[in-house]
Amino acid sequence: MINNMINLFDEITLTSTAIEKQICNFSMKFEQVRNEKIEWQIKLPMFVIAFYNYIITKNSIPSQDDYLQFYVSENKEYLTNLNLTMEEKIGVRARVYRTYPSLIRDLHFGLYLKERNCFSSVFYNVILDIEYGIDLLIQKPNGVFIGLNLFTKTKAAEHARAVKEFRAKKAFDYTCYEIPIDFRGSKVCGNYFLYSEREIGTIVDKIHQLEEK
């Protein structure tokens, strides 16, 4: 299934360490706004596409505001045609701000996994993410591919996961495992919680447990 897909981790020259150095001094802000129309009624352009376009074209990590500006610029025509009110535009900004740290965390972890050589390969593509719901695809030493769905143990993340699961997605050719991860005790880098060695252990243990059943 992935033969015709590009592994975006092969297109990125940044390392997990370089990402940490860039984000350690980044500020983050969140707006306590959840516009009903923006949250549930309008289908916004996918956040992850603009994020990876930024990473690959600029070879750097955007700040929260840089990412917002790039997302709006990348989707200018679409957003303009929505004729959003000022309140709705603020709602879009709030959603982008909330999504941003998880995009950073997932990118960092994917590259970290790749660098650690824990698996034969670590694969990511936005099509795999958007259309199949796969956050990461790993290959074991025996050649077997496993899809991973990573999510944090928070009420907001679990709700988002439930919504994502409800959406129609294409059938996946490989075994796929849900990997819930607890923020408590996670690596901290400035204002960011990151996955690291502990989370790799969680994934390896979970795979072993599930395959022994």
What does this structure look like?
By secondary structure, the chain is α+β, with helices and mostly antiparallel strands. The model has no long low-confidence stretch (mean pLDDT 89). It has helices spanning 16-23, 36-41, 47-58, 64-74, 76-81, 86-116, 126-132, 155-166, 197-212, and strands at 121-123, 136-139, 145-152, 175-181, 187-189, 192-194. The strands form 2 sheets. The protein has a 4-stranded mixed β-sheet. The protein has a two-stranded antiparallel sheet with strand order 5-6. It has one domain. It starts with 15 loop residues before the first helix and ends with a helix.
Topology, please?
Layout: H1 16-23, H2 36-41, H3 47-58, H4 64-74, H5 76-81, H6 86-116, E1 121-123, H7 126-132, E2 136-139, E3 145-152, H8 155-166, E4 175-181, E5 187-189, E6 192-194, H9 197-212
Parallel strand pairs: 3-4
Antiparallel strand pairs: 1-2, 2-3, 5-6
Q: Helices and strands: which structural class?
A: alpha+beta
How are the strands of the biggest sheet laid out side by side?
1-2-3-4
Helix content: 40-55%
Q: Mean of the pLDDT scores?
A: 89
N- to C-terminal separation? Answer: 26 Å
**What are the secondary-structure elements, in order, as H or E?**
HHHHHHEHEEHEEEH
What is the count of DSSP helices, taking H or I runs of 4+ residues?
9
User: DSSP strand (E) fraction?
Assistant: 5-15%
The number of distinct β-strands equals: 6
Largest sheet: 4 strands, mixed
- Tell me the count of domains: 1
Radius of gyration, taken over Cα atoms and rounded to an integer in Å? 17 Å
